[in-house]
TrEMBL record, chains A, B:
Family: Belongs to the PlsX family.
Subunit description: Homodimer. Probably interacts with PlsY.
Job of this protein: Catalyzes the reversible formation of acyl-phosphate (acyl-PO(4)) from acyl-[acyl-carrier-protein] (acyl-ACP). This enzyme utilizes acyl-ACP as fatty acyl donor, but not acyl-CoA.
NCBIfam families: plsX
Recorded catalytic activity of this chain's protein: a fatty acyl-[ACP] + phosphate = an acyl phosphate + holo-[ACP]
Keyword Transmembrane: no
One term under GO cellular component: cytoplasm
Compartment annotation: Cytoplasm
Pathway linked to the protein: Lipid metabolism; phospholipid metabolism
InterPro entries attached to this UniProt entry: FA_synthesis (IPR003664), Phospholipid_synth_PlsX-like (IPR012281)
GO molecular function list: phosphate:acyl-[acyl carrier protein] acyltransferase activity
Enzyme Commission number(s): 2.3.1.274
Gene: plsX
Protein name, per record: Phosphate acyltransferase
């Protein structure tokens, strides 16, 4: 049984979509137990809508909620009875294997480090979402946890990302690249120039050199290493360009009678295509390198993303990813 | 007459597409004179294909070409008789108002600073392309000239970008935003945190605060200020996500007989839509803050982009953008 603590109160669509996502997850897989954490009355009202195996679900009552706009450090410290802090403590105390939250990113990052804690030897836990590509998915690491990171952090991101892609997604010998502004080794800013030779020296990863942002969507690398500011820009621009382009295309198709008829005919095929380029299909982003698994999903997550994020926790546990991080990164570095 | 020196030998499609683009420009506008700079024999062979007003075109023979992979500083210093260095010198000596090149980015950036030279008081000349948005275009400044920039550089980028958008594109009181990883003022890396209050103090620009990468394609700001590494990632990812998504959509439309028929019907409308999201429609990227105008176009530029880049030089000169940069930025700072 994989035990997942779900922050029922976090995110724009909480608790409705979060709870629906949790129910869908336990109805899909019998080896998951979900703890729904939050205001008991609200959770119970939502639960009345669904049929599910009662043994796979437990409510943990809490009274407080951390809002997105609250300063994260303060919120984590003061709101001891918030759904997020409770979930963090359950992971820390090994009452849960993992937690999933669509709540405040800042609070999740702070809570992950302060409450759950880093694996000994890991300097900074990066946020590592999967992003869709022409070939499937790539792991973007770090996409927002550690701005102004150092070269040694990026080297650990590369190693953890490589272990994650190999074990969680079954990609043998994943190709690791560093985001750069040119393909040549002498290109880059100070951080990239310092990190590049260190990555070249790592003989436990398949480092293929620099990747220009243009080549990220084509699936040129499996693990894309970058500093958090750059990673956050990549992740958000991916969404932004995709959304604007799709809305332009839809608008264009509605512009003439001829194209309107065409649009009706292409609609089902197009829907299928766009689904494969939709980040929510791939669950949330794990914070790698913590003593337990913390998965952050979009603040705007709907049930589907919550379900996928919960299912993701099963692979993470079964593939013993944290054990492999400990064995492959820390032992070797010591 | 606006005199434009065109590097006929620079870029993946030189000299054919470059020369075609130059001819299209003079055939469109009678107030442009183009100097085609490069190997005379090759240029003459190409020119035989076209009809044009001979008084609007002159060939300047040079023997050398700077290749993309050459170290830029060395190339600019040694290849005195290259098409790019010749074009740079023509701008420096005011024999030309502007130059357009699709050649080595590094050599264009170095040559711009070393040969053409900065306007007195400008610390770093940024590369500032227009990028397509849902509403029209935005200016991305800096997109690759100055990695590891300082806050004072970004403030000048904001001011120059604002003058450019107001005068070259006629956008009154353009909205200026800084790329950030969250909307709140306390978010960001060290550079953004240092730059933000300085931009807030500028009363000669319409600073609207942070912009998340997600909101760039929607056209939320007219001038998008960022450090060159981030800007380069934005520009290239724009291209990459667009290209991958469009190829996925085209593939999707070919997947069933029904959708194939639909694709035939939507094709003309779709083509029109995608054209509005195509960066090459908007010409090249000016290097702002130089004693003269240097326009860098994509290495892969076709005739259309070259034509638009040449026409762009007319507006730049007629709107006296450099004079306005001198008057509004330098005088005030002194």
């Amino acid at each position: 049984m994989v035990k997942v603590a779900v922050d029922a109160m976090g995110g724009d669509n909480a608790p409705g979509e979060i709870i629906k996502g949790a129910i869908d997850a336990i109805n899909k897989m019998s080896n998951i137990k979900v703890f729904l954490i939050g205001k008991e009355e609200e959770i119970k009202t939502e639960l009345k809508k669904y049929e599910y195996n009662k043994e796979q679900l437990e409510i943990m009552h809490t009274t407080e909620v951390i809002a997105t706009e609250e300063p994260p450090v303060m919120a984590i410290r003061r709101k001891k009875d918030s759904s997020l802090v409770k979930a963090m403590n359950m992971v820390k105390n090994q009452e849960a294997d993992a937690l999933v939250s669509a709540g405040s990113s800042g609070a999740i990052l702070v809570g992950g480090q302060v409450i759950v804690g880093r694996i000994k030897g890991i300097e900074r836990p990066p946020l590592a979402p999967l992003i869709p590509t022409a070939k499937g998915v790539s792991l973007l690491v770090d996409c927002g946890a550690n701005v102004d990171a150092r070269a040694s952090h990026l080297v650990q991101f590369a190693k953890m990302g490589s272990i994650y892609m190999e074990n969680a997604l079954g990609i043998k010998n994943p190709k690791v690249a560093i985001v750069n502004i040119g393909a040549e080794e002498e290109k880059g800013n100070m951080l990239v120039k310092e990190t590049f030779p260190l990555l070249k020296e790592c003989n436990d990863i398949n480092f293929i050199g620099s990747i220009e942002a243009r080549d990220i969507p084509s699936g040129y690398a499996d693990v894309i290493v970058c500093e958090a500011f750059v990673g956050n820009v990549i992740l958000k621009l991916y969404e932004g360009v995709g959304a604007t382009l799709i809305s332009k295309i839809k608008g264009g198709m509605m512009s003439t009678l001829r194209s309107k008829i065409g649009a009706l005919l292409v609609k089902p095929a197009l829907k299928e295509t766009l689904k494969s380029f939709d980040a929510s299909e791939y669950g949330g982003a794990p914070l790698l390198g913590l003593n337990g698994l913390v998965v952050k999903t979009h603040g705007s997550s709907k049930a589907k993303e919550v379900t996928n994020s919960i299912i993701q926790c099963v692979t993470f546990k079964n593939q013993k990813i944290n054990e492999k991080i400990k064995a492959n990164i820390i032992m070797k570095d010591e």
